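In the current project phase, we have settled on a layout for protein records. One protein thus recorded is set out beneath this paragraph:
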Amino acid sequence: MDGIKNLFKNLLKSSKKTKLLIILTFLGIFLIALSGLPSKEDAESAPEQSDAEYCAGLEEKIKELVTAITGNKACVVAVTLENSGEYVYANQNKIDLDQTEDKNDTGLTTKESKKSEEEYIIVKGKDGTQTALIVTEKKPSIRGVAIVANGINNMNYDLISSCVSSMLGISTRKISISEAG
């Protein structure tokens, strides 16, 4: 500890440039440490999005895409989901492994028993509620997309189909496109 005190005393006796460099170094370290602290926004979890809200958001994006391709704002888009979203929770696994060895006339035999426990990590909220810690949210998979719009021709059909397929990561077989009539 005395070594550190002596180091600081010697540094304070040094030139103005050295003092300025030392102060800037400590200020930089302080700012780096400060940036690692969680912000108020990080502490508050994002509101959960329902499956209906997820579908509505996708439908709106697809409408914008179709409008950009056809030039016509009058289109109807319906997205259907295969399943609901899924959450992956943080957990702790505890595994107990017991081995026993028996010696008998025929040789050495080993017996193993394995016991496994899984516990979810629980987080306590400001209001005292307890919830499991969510690590990942998996969005629902898409069953299909139906698009009805004016201005659909062969070239637009292929372009809309490939764009929607790329945007959603689904096969073009899951996309139905029709001319409004």
Summary: The beta strands are 75-81, 86-89, 91-104, 107-120, 122-124, 130-132, 134-138, 142-149, 175-179. The longest strand covers residues 91-104. The chain has three domains: 2-37, 51-85+139-179, 89-122. Helices lie at 2-13, 16-35, 40-43, 51-70, 154-168.
